[in-house]
Specification:
Rossmann fold, alpha/beta, three-stranded antiparallel beta sheet, 19% strand, Pantoate--beta-alanine Ligase, Chain: A,domain 2, six-stranded parallel beta sheet
Length: 288
């Protein structure tokens, strides 16, 4: 693929005009929403989008409304120039890099909130987080006018919440999930992995290790969801720097709690390791 220097757009109205021209020309637009500090996980989503559309927009916006008061908004890594270089190598046509004021104009007071799906899992540990996610995603859709948007399956609850928002509001956007990309040792790629010390980085591998052990048992016939969740919890809690927030088995589509594996389910975990909050999950396919 020949290298393309992305067009950097900072204003909503400019991106809308570009999208209108592309749509009028019959071209299909894909959107990849990110908060920057791009790693291979993000880039895999951009490559997936590249195969789904004629034009790809990647947004880079550290969304303040999805951070809690004790979370890492101020120190979240920001490296726009490097991110643009990474996206250029993939052939992304447009990088949307707005200011906070452009996304949330002064006096703004409108929010979008999905109920039910946000009650469990990460919801209790990150109050207001998903309201911030759905609100900013809706505004990004309004700006980029995509035909399809790509989100990572690592943030599984977020993916399902966005899908529900799109369904309920009847938005004309196809939502596609991209597989979790992992380091060689199994740790799910995350911008926050950079916060881990070498010892914390080593102990963080317990999340994936526990999930894989549980999945192997499920594939061997174990149907008790609670037993599998407890196995993962015990595996992680063996690590002195790890504190489990939750391990849950949920219906893969509705996120309703699952007691027996008689349907497709997601086994999801969140833990604070070495002071850094990490999430991970594996889908457990229904087996006879």
């Amino acid at each position: 693929m020949s290298r393309t220097e992305p067009r950097i757009v900072e204003r909503v109205d400019e991106l809308q005009r570009w999208a209108d021209r592309e749509r009028a020309a019959g071209r299909r637009i894909a959107l990849v929403p990110t908060m920057g500090a791009l790693h291979e996980g993000h880039l895999s989503l951009a490559r997936l989008a590249r195969g789904l559309a004629d034009r790809v927009v990647a947004s880079i916006f550290v969304n303040p409304t999805q951070f809690g008061p004790t979370e890492d908004l101020e120190c979240y890594p920001r490296e726009l120039d490097a991110d643009v270089e990474r996206l250029a190598a993939i052939g992304v046509e447009v990088v949307f890099a707005p200011s906070v004021e452009e996304i949330y104009p002064p006096g703004d007071s409108t929010w979008i909130e999905v109920e039910g799906l946000t009650d469990g899992m990460c919801g209790p540990f990150r109050p207001g987080h998903f309201r911030g996610v759905t609100t900013v995603v809706a505004r990004l859709f309004h700006a980029a006018k995509p035909h399809v948007a790509v989100f990572g399956e690592k943030d599984y609850q977020q993916l399902q919440v966005v899908r529900r928002m799109v369904r309920d509001l009847r938005l004309d956007v196809e939502i596609v999930g991209g597989p979790t990309v992992r380091e060689a040792d199994g740790l799910a790629m995350s911008s926050r992995n950079a916060y881990l010390s070498p010892e914390g980085r080593s102990q963080a591998r317990a999340l994936c290790a526990g999930l894989l052990e549980a999945r192997a048992l499920a594939q061997a016939g174990e149907r008790d969801a609670g037993y599998l969740a407890e196995l993962v919890r015990e595996r992680i809690e063996k690590e002195p720097l790890a504190e489990v927030q939750y391990v849950e088995v949920r219906d893969a589509a509705t996120l309703e709690p699952v007691e027996r594996l008689n349907r497709r389910a997601v086994l999801a975990v969140a833990a604070v390791v070495d002071g850094t909050r990490l999430i991970d999950n594996l889908v457990l396919e229904e087996t006879p």
